[in-house]
Write a structure and sequence with these properties.
73 residues, mainly beta, OB fold (Dihydrolipoamide Acetyltransferase, E2P), four-stranded antiparallel beta sheet
Length: 73
């Protein structure tokens, strides 16, 4: 099985974790929500699979391109 790194597309703060490790996700399901410039931006699964780990916590700052989660396809 392949691990897929899920990366943030923007710089912002983790506003809410919408899933937990072990959850089964479909392509484009929301994993977590970032807040940037008072806007909420979802970070979505690039493919279907099982969420293996979330590498950030609510309130953490993330940079564009940072790996925030890993998905097993």
């Amino acid at each position: 099985m392949a691990l897929i790194d899920v990366k943030s597309e923007i710089t912002g703060k983790v506003w809410k974790l919408d899933t937990s490790p072990g959850d089964k996700l479909g392509e484009d399901d929301t994993i977590l929500t970032l807040e940037s410039m008072k806007m909420e931006i979802p970070v979505m699964a690039p493919a279907g699979g099982t969420l293996k780990e979330i590498l950030v916590a609510e309130g953490d700052s993330v940079k564009e391109g940072q790996v925030v989660a890993r998905l097993e396809k």
